[in-house]
Amino acid sequence: MSSTTMITDTVTVFSRELRPVLRDPFSVVFSMIQPLVFLGLFAPLLPEVEGGSALQWFVPGIVVMSCLFSTSFTGSNLLFEIQTGAHERMLVTPLRRPALIVGRALKEIVPMIVQTLIIVLVCVPFGFDLHILGVLAGVAILAVMAVGLGALSYTLALASKNTEWLFWTVQQTVLFPLLLLAGILLPVDDGPGWLRALSSANPLTYVVDAERALFNGEFPASTVLAAVVASVAVAALGLAVGTRAMRRSS
Amino acid sequence: MNDTMIQTTGLTRHFTVKKDVVEAVRGLDLHVAEGELVALLGPNGAGKSTTLRMLTTLIPPTSGTATVAGYDVVDQQREVRRVIGYIGQGNGAAHAQRGRDELVSQGRAYGMSGRDAKARADELVASLDLAAVADRPVSSLSGGQKRRLDIAMGLIHAPRLLFLDEPSTGLDPQNRANLQEHILKLRADHGTTIVLTTHYLDEADAMAERVIVVDHGTVIADDTPAGLKAEHAGDLITLGFASGADAARAAQRLGALDGAAVSSDGVQVEVRAQGGPRLVPGILRDLDAAGIAVESTTVNRPTLDDVFLNLTGRSLREGVVTTSTEEVAA
Ligand SMILES: Nc1ncnc2c1ncn2[C@@H]1O[C@H](COP(=O)(O)OP(=O)(O)O)[C@@H](O)[C@H]1O
Ligand SMILES: [Mg+2]
């Protein structure tokens, strides 16, 4: 039996996590129903904004929203495995603790890409301007954010081991403020000062801003850099607390 | 084959629940040699799972030490994890996955190549009768099928030492027998050292060569099932009489028997003593000579429950009592 490394362990966890998605790709679409409903019902209500169609402004936000929804839910899969015993079984294998969280969090990138693709493709016929390079750059930034958000969701699952309600309470409590404060559905620029302050403390705000520019084919250096820093910070935080929680998990 | 597989000294684990300290395992000294099949028998809450969880590196001991296959369970966790297989109380295979996928990824976790893991998964699927269900979502499997899959998961890397926590709890008698057969076969074919926990007396009795009785986190007896019974419980001879008066007279006469505990209840007299079947003819002759007619006789061999009852004053049984009974003609 050959020996394992941090990398092979991560690949093992990543592919295991991805397997049910590959076996049942439709599950990815299910998690998108809400974002697509928002898209369908909100977009027609949006006033024309200067320098582009409402759709051009709205779609990147929906892409981030879709990513936020699926990554924040993802811990519930781990929570279920904690309850049924699969997680315990994996803890007794020689898999390295960091790999158990990194592999899972990396998997979040795959549904995010599929979802982004679907949203963009659905919107192109309705006049969404496709800027391929910008979308690719946007996806790259969002990938880092997805890893961070996923790791945080898994951490929450580990912390909710015997208290399932804790997971759902925190997840629901955090989800919508994050969403609204990032200016995904409505711009926060005209809001009161306290709201703008909260918004600027929300890492997602910077990602949403950058996605809007990138999906529109623009590459404003400072906006993109802010988004990169915000997502790297969330990823680093998520993986750090996730690894710590995984080491303590039993 | 007398190498040490498990050695614990003063193994202790406390849990703190809302400022109350639960002493789940208290100063366990345990020695298991390579190739043994040991059952930890005890009621719910005795500390069986906690002991296994310490030995499998899931939780650290509060105090004391344990080595598994020569490795320390605290300082050499990865080495321990490499050599052991663990089948916990829950389902090792995730419900959202397919059984065969889980087997393969389990093999990968132990460093097997993709091809080896697949081949090994196929082998286990066949030997544990899982062919029909291995490619279905685990959630759709029956309790017995899930449990066999759990066993397959624990065996993927052919471990030298296998821990099973309540392997047959929740299974019907047929599935339980089937599972026990698989475990015994594993032992016979590969000489795997097996430590299992159970609160089923008949399971411990039927499977293990060595039964360690635990209660309140400590070992209260440790022997072969036969040894435990001989040491801690005698046979139960029950004599039936036509009248209470006869029974009372008989009880009085039998009180003189060496090493026997006699009690009477209505028209029945119970004699607990070692070597019951060989005592009965003498008892019958004696009572006959005294002019007391015996109407019926049964001899119950002791069970592990009698052992537990004698050791703790409590019964392990939850449901209806069934004992192995040998009828003796009166
Ligand atoms: N994680 C835990 N937190 C608090 N108490 C626990 C925990 N695990 C076990 N216990 C307690 O320790 C005792 C032994 O439990 P356990 O080892 O599961 O017993 P068994 O497996 O023999 O039924 C019980 O009183 C149980 O409530
Ligand atoms: Mg238990």
Summarize the structure.
The complex is a heterodimer of chains A (250) and B (330). Chain A has 250 residues and is an all-alpha fold. Chain A has 13 helices and no strands.
Describe it.
The complex is a heterodimer of chains A (250) and B (330). In chain A, helix 4 packs antiparallel against helix 8 and helix 5 (75-84) packs parallel to helix 9. Chain A is mostly helical and 250 residues long. Helices cover 76% and strands 0% of the residues of chain A. The longest helix of chain A has 28 residues, at 132-159. Chain A is globular, with a radius of gyration of 19 Å. Chain A has 13 helices and no strands. Chain A has one domain. Chain B starts with a strand and ends with a strand. Chain B contains 11 helices and 15 strands. Chain B has 2 domains: 4-223, 3-Layer(aba) Sandwich (Rossmann fold); 232-327, Alpha-Beta Plaits (2-Layer Sandwich), CATH 3.30.70. In chain B, helix 3 packs across helix 4 (114-127) and helix 8 packs across helix 11. With 330 residues, chain B is α/β, with parallel strands linked by helices. Classes of the chains: A mainly alpha (250), B alpha/beta (330). Magnesium ion (MG) binds at residues 48-49, 89, 165-166 of chain B. Residues 48-49, 89, 165-166 of chain B line the site of magnesium ion.
